[in-house]
Amino acid sequence: MSAPDLYSSIDHLQNALAQNAYVAERSLTTAIFLSLKLRKPLFLEGEAGVGKTEVAKVLAAMLGRPLIRLQCYEGLDISTAVYEWNYARQMLHIRWLEASGRAREADALHDIFSPEFLLKRPLLQALEQQNGVEPVLLIDELDRADEEFEAFLLEILSDFQITIPELGPIRAQTPPVVVITSNRTREIHDALKRRCLYHWIDYPSFAKEFEIVLARVPDAPARLAQEVVRFVQALRHEDLYKAPGVAETLDWMQALIALDAEALSEEIIHDTLGVLLKYQDDIGSMRGGRITALMHSRPIITRE
């Protein structure tokens, strides 16, 4: 499906997502469609592992555009996310100017603060077309960055430009596709949210997660996939420090296939709990009778 088709209707976009093994309910597809149509950033919140990051990856693949990813973390600053000057090259250039007797020329200082000496980080790279194509910019896990970092994003999300004091504003000719994700470990400021379209991605229903497993792990036996999804769905309703996301479901499914499992058993669940759960207290709480009870639980039916 060509890129223009993605903009033609929500149904076309949903079909394209499905063809790229991304199962999305219509509300999420609508949010993605409007983000593309209106050229507005898409802000996705939800628990870890529910498919937020994958939206940007799939969009880049469907649109045939490069993906530029900014992984956020505590202490992220402008020099890492936006730009910095190549001080080593600047010093070499200054020494060359001194050796050639040009260090006192009026334009010498201007020369060392030219684009030639600029190191472009992900946010600045995203404003420039690559081979005439606008990239997809993924700002991943924004909630992990400091609140002050959000201020750097406001100009970009409003005007798709960055102001560099020595060069002035640098503006995108055509805005990139922007996807921002948050696991909601802290609240993101309203000023940033107002510049975006918003969508919450929840844990999927049994039927949707089963469809995701079959799409992402096509060699998964249907019966085993049902048992896996049923167990994970029940596990999420336990009192855990960190419930498994869809990413863990897929990892577990692949692990069971690698072990040539044909059906779930208490023994194999015991042996592979570390694929689903990442904290020892959670693993310990599931030992013994809890696994037996979860194996015989029924999927909780939820409406999409």
Global mean pLDDT? 88
User: What is the helix fraction of residues, given as a range?
Assistant: 40-55%
State the major sheet: 5 strands, parallel
CATH domain class name of the largest domain: Alpha Beta
What percent strand? 5-15%
What order do the strands of the largest sheet run in, or round the barrel if closed? 2-5-8-1-9
CATH architecture assignment of the largest domain:
3-Layer(aba) Sandwich
| Structure annotation, total helices | 16
Unreliable segments of 5+ consecutive residues: 300-304
The rounded distance between the terminal residues' Cα atoms is 26 Å
Taken in chain order, the helices and strands follow as HHHEHEHEHHEHEHEEEHEHHHHHH
CATH topology of the largest domain: Rossmann fold
- Classified in CATH, the superfamily of the largest domain is P-loop containing nucleotide triphosphate hydrolases
Rounded radius of gyration (Å): 24 Å
Count the beta strands: 9
Question: How would you describe this protein?
Answer:
There is one protein chain. This protein is an alpha/beta fold and 304 residues long. It has 3 domains: 3-77 and 123-201, P-loop containing nucleotide triphosphate hydrolases (Rossmann fold), CATH 3.40.50; 83-115, no CATH class; 206-295. The chain is built from 16 helices and 9 strands. The chain has helices at 3-8, 10-19, 26-38, 52-63, 78-81, 87-99, 108-112, 122-126, 147-159, 190-193, 206-216, 222-235, 246-258, 266-276, 280-285, 289-295; strands at residues 42-46, 67-71, 83-85, 118-120, 136-140, 161-164, 168-171, 177-182, 197-201. The strands form 3 sheets. The chain has a 5-stranded parallel β-sheet. A two-stranded antiparallel ribbon has the order 3-4. A two-stranded antiparallel sheet has the order 6-7. A hairpin with a 3-residue loop joins strand 6 and strand 7. Helix 2 crosses helix 3 and helix 11 (206-216) packs across helix 13. The longest helix has 14 residues, at 222-235. Residues 300-304 have low confidence and may be disordered.
